[in-house]
Amino acid sequence: MRSAPLVLRVERLLRRVSGGRMGVLDLAGLPSIEVTVAGRKTGLPRTTSLLYVPRGADFIVLGSNWGSTAHPVWSANLRAAQTASVRHKGEQFLVTVREITGVERKPLWDLAVAFWPGYAMEYELSGGRVFRIFELRRQSA
């Protein structure tokens, strides 16, 4: 998607000036979180703003990558991690990471598409790539 680089620059600026409380998706009325996870190769922290699908107290994130044929790098990092840090509405906390596969996957895909129909369009754009789906569950204090 051609607009992705511009959107990402605006996202970073909004996050910086709002102290991490707001991003581009929030302006569009969509829920977003910032996920920080160790890079699987470097171990350095990598932060990405993501649309999430609420599921109770949990966050469901999908590696749609704007409909690209390739998986997003952040999804490979999450796949390699057991935990990550989430910033949500200015609050930061740890989450347990679990990739959703098998029989659990279809109901969460349906939930995600019902929540944000753009996922179906991105799936078509990707040539039918199976998006990685993750559950981020807040850890108890």
Automatic annotation (TrEMBL):
Catalytic activity reported: oxidized coenzyme F420-(gamma-L-Glu)(n) + a quinol + H(+) = reduced coenzyme F420-(gamma-L-Glu)(n) + a quinone
Origin: domain of life: Bacteria
Family: Belongs to the F420H(2)-dependent quinone reductase family.
Protein known as: Nitroreductase family deazaflavin-dependent oxidoreductase
Protein's organism: Nocardia abscessus
Lineage: Bacteria, Bacillati, Actinomycetota, Actinomycetes, Mycobacteriales
